[in-house]
Structure formats: C-alpha cells, structure tokens
C-alpha cells in the first residue's frame, strides 16, 4: 500500500515537472518571440501623411492645390487573361495595351500599372471590377490655371525614399516649409482591427505643410501669359520672357517664359524647359544697359543730360576694334539725352570715358550685376563678372552699351527698378507671406539692398528715359497720353567667338507711370524672326501689356487723349 | 454586569458581521461596474472608427470640391465661359475726363 502511494506520488511529481519544463520553455525561452508576435498582432502602427501646403495668388485665389491621387497596381498572379485585362485598362490609363501586358510578368506579385492617377481615372478602373487590381494613395498637385507660371512654380515628384519633394521654382525653394511633417499613431487593436481605448496609445501629431501667399497677381499673370503667346507667334521668336515687378517693394507681380511645360505632366518634357529663363538664362542686355551707365555717370556729376558728346561724329576706334552706331548714322553734337534717344553706342563710349573704368565697374556691381538677386526661386543663376584684371579697354567700351557682359532678365529688372524707385535697389520676392496651418501669416517684408544713385539722379534719368520712349525708335507703338520711361535693346548673340548679326535678343525695359511707377517690366524676345530690333518686337509687346495694366490699375492718361 | 458584557459582545459581533458583508459586497459591486465600463469603452472604439471613417470621407469630398471650385474660378475657365456667352474683349479704351460732358466725347 505504501509503495502504491509512493508510485502515484512519483508519477504526479514527474507530471508536475513536465508541465514546469514546458512552461519554462514557452514563457522563458520562447517568451520574447511570442510576446513580439502578439504585439505585432494587436499593436497597430500607422503613419499619418502631412498635407502639402498650397500656393495662392496675391488675391487668395488658389494657384496650386492638392488633389487625391492613386497608384494603380496589379497582381499578375490573379489575372487570368492578361491580354483582355490590358485591352480593358488601356483606354482609361492611356497606356498602350502591349506596354501593360509587358509589365504583368508572371514572376511578380505587385506591378505599378499607373502612377499619379487622378480620382476620375481611379473610379473608371474600379467600375471595371478587374481581378488583381488595387489602389494606393499617391496625392497629386492640381493646377487650376493649367501651365500658367509653370517655370516659377516648379513641380512635385518623389525623392529617393518615395516621399513627395518639390523640384525647381517655388516648390523646390520652399519644399521644407510646404511639405509638412507626418505623424505616427501607435494603438492596441482588437480582432476586428478596432482601437482599444483602454490600451496603450501614443500619437506623434501631424504638422501640415505651410501655404504660400504669392505676390503674383492673378490678372496680371494671365494677361502677361496671353500677351507673350501672341508675341511669340507674331514676331516668330524662339523664346521669350516677361517679368513685371513693383519697383517700390520688389514684389514680382508676374513672370512668364517660353518655351514652357505642363507641371502636372512634367516628365513628358525635356529637362531643359524646367529651368526658369527669367532667373537662370544669361544674355547680353544690349542698349537697355545704357540706362544704368548713364545713371552712374549723372550720379557722379561727370555728365548732365545737356553734356555734348565730343566723339560722336563717327565710328570710334579702340584697341583695334571699331565701334559703330546700330544704324551707322552719327550726330556730331549729340547731347547725353540724344545719345539715349538715338541709342548711340559711340555716345555711350564717351560716357564710359567720363565715368572712368573703376567707377564704371563699381556702379555695375552696385546695380547688382554679377550677383544673384536672392529671389526666392530654386534655380536662380548669376553670371560672374570678369575679375577686374581681366578687363581691357574694349571691354569697358562695349560694356557701356551692354555687350560683352551677361545678365539674367531678373537682374536687369531689378537694376532698372532702382531708377524707378528713387535710387534704391530692392530684393525681388515671389512670396508675400507664408501661412501656417493655424492660419497665422508670416509676412516677407520688402528689403532694400542698397542705395545706388541719389533720388535726384533717378528723376533726371527717368525723364531721359521718358524722352527716349517719346522720341526714340519705339515711339510709334507707345500708348498715347501716358508717360512711360523705358529703353529698347537689340543685342547680338555671341556664337563661337563672334557676334551673329542676324540673331539678336530683342528687349524692352520700362516703368510707368514714370512719375509714380506702379510697375516695372522687362520683355525679352529670343531671336525674333519678323525683325531683329527691340523697337519692333519687344517694345510693342511691352506697350500691349502696359495698356492692359493701365486699365487694371485705373491709371488715366496725363498728356491728353 | 454580566448582562451588559453580553450585550456588548453581541453588538460587536453584529458590527463584525456588517463589516464582513461590506468587504465582500463592495468588491463585487466594483467588479460589475468595471466590467460594464470596460465593455462600454470597448464598444465605443467601434463608434470612434466610424467617426474616423466619416471624417476621412468628408475630408476627401472637401478636397474634390476645392478642386472643382479652383477649376471654376480660374481665369482660364472664366474666359471660356465669357466666350461662350459672347462677351468680347475690349479693343479700345476711352477715358472720359470730368471736365468734358459725355455727349461731347469724340466717337470712335
């Protein structure tokens, strides 16, 4: 009897030890792994994507907004008839059926059939009820004004991590501000995936991207874009740019260039067009530069509008080169005013000699030539001025009439803008304010870079520029009754070490009304074929836009109808 | 004296019984309350999920409507509608000064 009890006791001990060992195995040895598996089942971690900031015109109308977008994918293993599948999908996603079929390789389980698909496309695909098709969120940008302002807006694509990133223009420059910061939510869930409120919860909040409120005026931008299209066709130009700026604040009111592209379908275009010519393309400014040199000389009191040019009777020989006027006509007793009106190159050489080489370079730099304007666009470039030791006599001479040195259109607008603004050089800005997700606006204040010339000099040169418009080659296109200060430019294009006389950059820079400018504008046409001259291409286009701006700003004629 | 002592003893026993009852009853009540509350919170998560779904749906609709509004108020769309309504672009501007009667303004 005693032995039986003992045997049963041993059996129970063995059973107990077995259970203990198994418990030790599952709770201690396998415990970590099982806890991790359980956590994976009931812990749910998901990322919250921040909304990208939107871009608004100065009147708070939407310029660039977000829209729902999708990546459409397919699982080739679930598609029985790939040909029929491709044929059904092809007209909706606008891809060739053969291309779709080629993507659906048997060894793959997930194939991106269409990226950046808008909502209507997704709904059409959904309606087909095709097997193996799914959708992932892929937010898109929407451009209500189509390709307006494409080059200063830039576009949004993906970075190496597959996250949205802005490239070029405003999207690139302000990418960190407008992309926002995503959040993370970690929560316990039940078997149906519903959060358990009593469980552990943690949340890193989203910060949506900030919106940009631009200085760009919707109406002016629209007018400029249309006018530029008309001008390109009428004058047969290969390219063109127009910039409109408020000279008193540096606010860019409109900016347009051709050729352009559709920022929604940016990948369909050559990468060359992504660059914004208004801030990144270099050209020799030609006669428009004369206004800056003349202003410099008047500011130094070395000439006045009445000073007579003593070398204007004929071509000027300099260092083995001959400098002529554009039409080979010479006025022996030209005053400085006449030099500007007739756009006399020899007269400008005279001005340069009076000013002196050192002062000429100093003023060129003070007007911002050779340095970036610091405009808030990603792709700005600036040609460097030659080192002082690399300037020869002929270089100083040609610089006085804007050849032999390069500028960007925005540099030219900013520089002449100093004349319109009483001598103060302003920093140009696309953005008026950055709007936080709370609605609070952080304004970007106008910034004075430096004083270049005195207010008196600015007034004198303005009057000379008004006379240049009224009596110069562009007088026939000028709107009657308005005082417009401006200057034409016809610059030959350097090709392989020499200038091609048949290819020019035709430009016109001006501001109006001259006595209290509401705007300064540069119109630049690249290689117009109807005429090589700025007076016959860029100037009429300038005046066409200016007439619309006078109506928009309610500026009435001051000199009779 | 003995009677008083007996009564006190009885009184103490009654108090002890009451206390014992409380010690058992309160936890039971609290357990039931906790069960009900947990159940309510757990089922509330379903309500939360449906609210979240509704919020997502409304946000999505908002985005689509914003896109529509932006499209309709773009100058490109306005110009097209103006053309369809036979509006014409002004080819000339006439400025009428205050000093001159309108009837005497030059005709164009």
Explain how this protein is built:
The complex is a heterodimer of chains A (561) and B (108). By secondary structure, chain A is of the alpha+beta class. In chain A, 34% of the residues lie in helices and 23% in strands. Chain A has 18 helices and 23 strands. In chain A, strands 7-3-2-12-18-19 form a six-stranded mixed β-sheet, with no helix packed on it. Chain A has a five-stranded antiparallel β-sheet with strand order 14-13-23-22-21, with helices on both faces. The termini of chain A are far apart. Chain B has helices at residues 2-72, 75-84. Chain B is rod-shaped. The interface between A and B is medium-sized, with 28 and 26 residues.
First and last CA, distance of chain A: 135 Å
Give the C-alpha Rg of chain B. 43 Å
How is the main sheet of chain B built? none
| Helix vs. strand class of chain A | alpha+beta
Biggest sheet of chain A: strands side by side, in what order? 7-3-2-12-18-19
Mean pLDDT score of chain B: 84
The quaternary organization reads as: heterodimer
Largest interface: A-B, 28 and 26 residues
Content of β-strand of chain B: under 5%
Radius of gyration of chain A: 34 Å
Count of DSSP helices of chain A? 18
Number of strands of chain B: 0
Q: How much of the sequence of chain A is in beta strands? A: 15-25%
Count up the helices of chain B. Answer: 2
User: Helix content range of the residues of chain A, please?
Assistant: 25-40%
Mean pLDDT of chain A: 91
């Amino acid at each position: 009897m005693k032995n039986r009890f003992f045997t049963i006791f041993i059996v129970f001990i063995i059973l107990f030890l077995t259970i203990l060992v198994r418990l030790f195995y599952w709770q201690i040895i396998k415990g970590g792994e099982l806890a991790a598996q359980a956590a994976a089942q009931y812990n749910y971690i998901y990322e919250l994507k921040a909304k990208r900031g939107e871009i608004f015109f100065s009147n708070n109308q939407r310029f660039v907004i977000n829209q729902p977008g999708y990546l459409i994918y397919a699982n080739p293993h679930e598609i029985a008839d790939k040909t029929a599948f491709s044929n059904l999908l092809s007209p909706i996603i606008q891809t060739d059926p053969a291309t779709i079929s080629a993507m659906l390789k048997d060894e793959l389980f997930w194939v991106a059939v269409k990226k950046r698909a808008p909502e209507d496309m997704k709904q059409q695909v959904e309606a087909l009820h095709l097997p193996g098709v799914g959708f992932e969120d892929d937010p898109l940008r929407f451009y209500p004004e189509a390709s307006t302002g494409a080059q200063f807006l830039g576009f949004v694509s993906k970075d190496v991590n597959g996250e949205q990133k802005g490239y070029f223009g405003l999207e690139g420059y302000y990418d960190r501000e407008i992309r926002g910061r995503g959040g993370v939510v970690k929560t316990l869930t039940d078997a149906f995936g519903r959060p358990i409120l009593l469980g552990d919860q943690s949340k890193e909040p989203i910060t949506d991207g900030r919106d940009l409120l631009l200085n760009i005026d919707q109406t002016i931008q629209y007018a400029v874009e249309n006018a530029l299209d008309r001008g390109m066709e009428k004058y047969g130009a290969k390219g063109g740019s127009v910039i409109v700026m408020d000279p008193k604040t540096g606010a860019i009111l409109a900016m347009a260039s051709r050729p352009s592209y559709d920022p929604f379908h940016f990948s369909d275009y050559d990468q060359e067009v992504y660059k914004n010519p208004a801030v990144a393309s270099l050209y020799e400014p030609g006669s428009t530069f004369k206004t800056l040199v003349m202003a410099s000389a008047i500011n130094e009191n070395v000439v006045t509008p009445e000073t007579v040019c003593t070398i204007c009777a004929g071509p000027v020989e300099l260092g083995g080169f001959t400098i002529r006027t554009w039409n080979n006509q010479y006025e022996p007793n030209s005053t400085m005013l006449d030099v500007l009106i007739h756009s006399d190159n020899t007269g400008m050489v005279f001005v340069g000699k009076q000013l002196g080489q050192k002062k000429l370079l100093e003023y060129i730099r003070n007007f911002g030539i050779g340095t970036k304007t610091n405009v808030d666009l990603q792709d700005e470039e600036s040609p460097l001025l030659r080192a002082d030791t690399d300037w020869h006599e002929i270089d100083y001479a040609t610089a006085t009439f804007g050849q032999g040195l390069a500028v960007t259109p925005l540099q030219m607008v900013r520089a002449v803008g100093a004349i319109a603004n009483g001598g103060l050089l302003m920093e140009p800005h696309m953005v008026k304010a950055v709007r936080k997700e709370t609605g609070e606006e952080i304004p970007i204040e106008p910034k004075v870079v430096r004083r270049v010339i005195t207010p008196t000099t600015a007034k004198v040169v303005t009057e000379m520029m008004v006379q240049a418009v009224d009596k110069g080659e562009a007088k026939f296109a000028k709107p009657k009754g308005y005082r417009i200060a401006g200057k034409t430019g016809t610059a030959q294009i350097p090709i392989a070490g020499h200038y091609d006389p048949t290819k020019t950059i035709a430009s016109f820079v001006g501001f109006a009304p001259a006595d209290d400018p509401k705007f300064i504008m540069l119109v630049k046409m690249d290689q117009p074929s109807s005429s090589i001259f700025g007076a016959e291409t860029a100037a009429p286009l300038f005046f066409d836009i200016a007439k619309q701006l006078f109506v928009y700003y309610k500026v009435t004629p001051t000199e009779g109808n | 004296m003995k009677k008083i002592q007996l009564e006190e003893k009885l009184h103490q026993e009654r108090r002890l019984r009451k206390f014992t009852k409380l010690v058992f009853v309160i936890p039971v009540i609290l357990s039931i309350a906790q069960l009900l509350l947990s159940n309510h919170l757990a089922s509330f998560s379903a309500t939360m999920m449906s609210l979240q779904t509704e919020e997502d749906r409304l946000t999505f609709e908002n985005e689509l409507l914003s896109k529509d509004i932006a499209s309709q108020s773009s100058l490109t769309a306005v110009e097209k509608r103006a053309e369809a309504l036979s509006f014409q672009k002004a080819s000339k501007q006439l400025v009428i000064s205050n000093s001159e009667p309108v009837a005497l303004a030059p005709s164009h």
